[in-house]
Design a protein that fits this description.
The protein is an alpha+beta fold. The protein is built from ten helices and eight strands. It comes from Xenophilus arseniciresistens.
Length: 267
């Protein structure tokens, strides 16, 4: 009996494609992701057109997904998602997943840059600090994990709003007194600031909460995703360990955010 020693062929796709292609799995995920994005029933023919496939290619996959309870076929022949994926997702807290994904990258970042760093999300119209890693220095800026802050007035909150869907952002702002008490001119300037942050892919603020404070923030996750977070370096000016130019740390901060997003599956 001979044993094969050759390795399976590697996929030629680049970027975020897997190293080894699994066509059946990718076909199933394409169907689930498309139905999730469209949020309306789609027939086998409509799915095939949207995915650039032949209808016959999808028949067995649709039958399998329906049989496992992930899809339901309507009377008109259209397929729609059931609640099974939602129920599966509910067994794992997205915050717990984020925390596990962030632990090692954040610790490595802080050990390298010697500045404090915290991870935050939006929670009930406010900014919730999920975790904080303190700089290994005698004098440092620390933000308490579990604390709630204004999503409108903090840099972290602004970066999250800037990278949220416009309708979701506007709905939150309509409920917040910090935004509603601004003049029409101030609101216009605020929204322009958020747009600039979105285009830049980062946000920076000095003396926002107190004199001497500096924040540099980058988003984690995609604007289309339901789980989004922000990673922020919080620094004190004037300390002997502080970086004179915080922007020197932007590449490392972005790399850390990308690592967290990739590990958590929300990149």
């Amino acid at each position: 009996m001979t044993r094969r020693t050759d390795n399976p062929p590697e996929a030629t796709d680049t970027g975020t494609r897997p190293k080894y292609a699994v066509p059946a799995v990718e076909k199933a995920l394409d169907i689930l992701e498309l139905l999730s994005a469209q949020a309306v029933p789609m027939t086998q023919a409509q799915l095939a057109r949207a995915l650039g496939r032949e209808p016959g290619e999808l028949f067995r996959m649709l039958s399998a997904l329906e049989g496992r309870g992930y899809l339901r076929r309507e009377d008109n022949g259209g397929y729609t998602l059931t609640l099974k994926l939602f129920e599966l997702s509910r067994t794992h807290s997205p915050h717990d997943q984020l925390l596990r994904a962030a632990t090692a990258p954040m610790r490595e970042l802080v050990d390298t840059i010697r500045e404090s760093c915290h991870l935050s999300v939006l929670h009930r119209d406010q900014l919730l600090v999920l975790t904080q890693v303190d700089a290994p220095t005698p004098i440092r800026l620390s933000v308490e994990a579990g604390s709630l802050h204004s999503a409108v007035d903090t840099l972290s909150g602004q970066v999250l709003l800037a990278n949220s869907p416009e309708a979701e952002r506007d709905e939150l702002l309509s409920r917040r007194a910090e935004f509603q008490r601004k003049t029409a001119q101030e609101r216009t300037a605020y929204l322009a600031m958020l747009q600039k942050m979105k285009e830049d892919g980062w946000g920076y603020a000095e003396n926002a909460r107190f004199v001497g404070g500096r924040d540099l923030s980058v988003p984690i996750g995609s604007a289309q995703g339901r789980t989004r977070a922000v990673l922020t370096i919080a620094s004190l000016q004037g300390t002997h360990t502080a970086h004179e130019d915080l922007f020197e740390l932007l590449p490392r901060l972005r790399k850390c955010a990308e690592d967290i997003g990739r590990i958590a599956g929300i990149a």
